[in-house]
Specification:
Blueprint (H helix, E strand, L loop, with lengths): L10 E2 L4 E3 L7 E3 L14 E4 L1 H11 L6 E4 L6 E3 L2 E7 L7 E7 L2 E5 L21 E6 L11 H14 L5 E4 L5 H11 L6 E3 L1 H12 L7 E3 L12 E4 L7 H4 L5 E5 L6 H6 L4 E3 L7 H11 L3 E7 L1 H10 L3 E4 L13
Parallel strand pairs: 2-3, 3-4, 4-5, 9-10, 10-17, 11-14, 11-15, 12-13, 12-14, 15-16, 17-18
Antiparallel strand pairs: 1-2, 6-7, 7-8, 8-9
Length: 332
């Protein structure tokens, strides 16, 4: 089940270019800005303009030798290999990579989701012969609820505990901005308070045209003002002394992993919010079917169950097990 275009390390051999390499390479295509996909130290980087902006904020202006920004759908021909990027819906700027050469179409999804999200360009289905898909939530048990339902649960808790500060653990890139946007769409127009680690990336989203409403720095706010308020913080801050200054906090955590009750209990999460930036089991199966791919390579998570499912459908399927890719697809 080898591909004439792409090897199992996501290396496009004909043009010596890697997709989301886990170590510095001379040429790299980066699907999105999370650190398990976007590393510093590459020579030439091809990515969307949003991903490049994110990388520069996180790693510095000189985090790669050079950058080439590519618009969605724009085709770059490199020695007869056609490369184009297509929206993945995961976070701002995230992209699937379509490679066309030798009569074959190969799509590398990176991380992706299909649910509408104001903070990310909407997912685009790309037909292909070989699909390289993530499987972060590649088990039948993962069937994500509507995020609006989870936000309604948060609002109910705010009503029931009006004097307590609600601290929502969110990854700083993508999840924090999505949760803020979901709150705004649901009608929450009060200030939202941020841990300092969230500020620069929220500013970047607004610079890139994503409105987030009034945001304030939590550490500059009197404790009394935070009673009944919403604070967005990285998961690590929920467990350290930073959170102890808050008013009897309700600890919440927004993640697809919160559907596993044991994970919530281990993290001392009082209000688990099942809000995922990845496709669930049903969406994985839907995407595989709709692309028309006859060969599926599975990476980034629960490979075995999805590989088994694909083989049951008569497809050629293999796990990739790429070292260095985190199984949660988000940032710790």
């Amino acid at each position: 089940m080898a591909s004439p275009i792409l090897d199992r390390n996501l290396h496009i051999r004909a043009i010596d270019t890697f997709i989301d390499p886990t170590s510095p390479k001379a040429r790299a295509i980066i699907t999105h800005g999370h650190s398990d996909h976007a590393r510093s130290g590459h020579g030439k980087v091809l990515a969307t303009a949003d991903t490049i902006a994110i990388m520069k904020v996180r790693y510095g202006e000189d985090c790669a030798g050079s950058f080439q920004a590519v618009g969605y759908g724009e085709v770059i021909d490199i020695d007869g290999v056609r490369i184009s990027l297509h929206p993945a819906g995961h976070i701002l700027g995230s992209a699937q990579v379509l490679i066309e050469a030798e009569g074959q179409r190969v799509v590398v999804t990176g991380d992706y989701k299909r649910h509408p999200d104001r903070t990310a360009q909407p997912f685009e289905l790309v037909p292909c012969d070989l699909l390289v898909t993530e499987a972060t939530f590649g088990l039948p048990v993962f069937q994500h609820p509507e995020p609006e339902t989870e936000i309604a649960r948060l609002f109910k808790s705010l009503v029931n505990s009006p004097d307590r500060t609600h601290v929502i653990g969110c990854y700083a890139l993508g999840k924090a901005q999505r949760v803020i946007s979901l709150l705004r769409v649901s009608g929450y127009d009060k200030p939202i308070y941020l841990h300092g680690a969230m500020v620069r990336l929220c500013e970047l989203y607004e610079e890139r045209g994503i409105p987030l409403g009034e945001l304030r720095l939590a550490t500059e706010t009197p404790k009394a003002e935070l009673e009944g308020a919403i604070v967005i913080a990285p998961p690590s801050a929920m467990k350290d002394r930073w959170s102890r200054r808050l008013s009897d906090p309700v600890l919440a955590f927004a993640s697809g992993w919160m559907s596993i009750k044991q994970r919530a209990r281990q993290s001392l999460v009082e209000l688990p919010l099942v809000i995922s930036d990845h496709v669930d089991w049903n969406e994985l199966r839907q995407t595989i079917a709709e692309t028309g791919a006859q060969t599926v390579w599975v990476t980034h998570g629960r490979e075995d169950a999805l590989v088994y499912y694909c083989r049951q459908q008569g497809l050629n399927a293999e796990p990739l097990n790429i070292q260095g890719f985190e199984d949660n697809g988000e940032e710790e």
